[in-house]
């Protein structure tokens, strides 16, 4: 991709994750997802007394255990093990995301 397409892609990424669009509910799904996840995290941390880092660790351990059991039991049940997609990111995409993050961090520091 040439530099003009990179900047168009960067502008699309900025508009997609713009805080104004999320706060004004122009992107209803992303705003709703952020509101629900923040509410769940608040409930876990404040009301139940469960901290965020142990919650993330326990979730990752549980996910790892489920995938391990699924891959081992799949031979007995005659089901295929889970297929993990082969994800390849282009250099242009990584550059655009890095530029976006750099701009957002610089604007936040001002």
Q: Can you characterise this structure?
A:
It contains 5 helices and no strands. It has 110 residues and is an all-alpha fold. The chain is extended. The mean pLDDT is 79.
Beta-strand portion reads under 5%
Shape assignment:
extended
Radius of gyration: 20 Å
* Distance between the first and last residues' Cα: 31 Å
Tally of strands? 0
Percent in helix? over 70%
> Regions with pLDDT < 50 over 5+ consecutive residues?
none
Q: What's the order of the H and E elements?
A: HHHHH
Biggest β-sheet: count, sense, barrel? none
Number of DSSP helical runs = 5
InterPro entries: Reticulon, Reticulon-like
GO biological process, one term: response to bacterium
Pfam families: Reticulon (PF02453)
Subcellular location: Endoplasmic reticulum membrane
Please write out the topology.
Elements: H1 3-16, H2 19-23, H3 28-48, H4 52-77, H5 91-109
Helix pairs in contact: 1-5
Give me a quick take on this structure.
It comes from Lactuca sativa (Garden lettuce). This protein is mainly alpha-helical and about 110 residues long.
Supply database-style keywords.
single chain; 5 helices; 110 residues; mainly alpha
